[in-house]
Design brief:
single chain, alpha/beta, 5-stranded mixed β-sheet, 6-stranded mixed β-sheet, Purple Acid Phosphatase, chain A, domain 2
Length: 195
């Protein structure tokens, strides 16, 4: 695989309508060439309460006004009605992205088991397979690919010192990282190990 070390890719999932966490994530993603969103963009699951910062129309505006390209794969909470708010497609369950020499598959993950993720990664010769849904950050080898789940910036399941830690992912400078919105590094893996 030939990839550009100088690239920066932002990875996010499960924003669930929270504009405040979006704004913080965009500061972390500053300078990114592309942002990949693994779904559950605007709405929240019925069993989870709305988080502070929940504002669907304002988050839609922020996404629409982004000068950085954003690619979104549909999540289980994303509905057709959101295409009226967002000026980018959100109804495909898969996004296939080739960027900076990397082949990337993005899928929310709610319909996949690890074996099917690995089979799809192999079928599409993916270097990276991005999911969300669990709200728990992961970077792991999956056959020849690396599976990344950035966790959730709005309704996180990861705990730090007894408090939920909102997270996002970044590929930058030859490294895959999961970072907290507080700036802390949660997980990392050299991109070269994805070869």
């Amino acid at each position: 695989m030939i990839w550009r070390v100088a690239m920066k890719i932002g990875i996010i999932s499960d924003t669930h309508g929270n504009v405040d966490v979006w704004d913080t994530a965009m500061q972390i993603f500053k300078g990114a060439e592309i942002i990949l969103h693994a779904g559950d963009v605007l709405y929240h699951p019925p069993r989870m309460c709305c988080s502070e910062g929940y504002n669907i129309p304002e988050l839609a505006n922020r996404i629409n006004e982004s000068t950085t390209p954003i690619v979104i794969a549909r999540g289980n909470c994303d509905a057709e009605v959101y295409e009226e708010l967002l000026q980018i497609p959100v109804l495909s369950p898969y996004a296939f992205v080739q960027h900076a020499g990397l082949r990337i598959v993005v899928q929310h993950g709610h319909t996949l088991i690890p074996q099917s993720m690995q089979s799809l990664a192999e079928k599409y010769r993916a270097d990276i397979f991005i999911t969300g849904h669990t709200h728990t950050p992961v970077i792991e080898r999956m056959g020849e690919a690396v599976h990344i789940n950035p966790g959730s910036p709005s309704i996180p399941k990861l705990m730090k010192n007894g408090c939920p830690l909102p997270t996002v992912g970044i590929i930058e400078g030859g490294t895959i990282r999961i970072v907290g919105l507080d700036g802390s590094e949660v997980l990392s893996m050299p991109l070269a190990s994805a070869e």
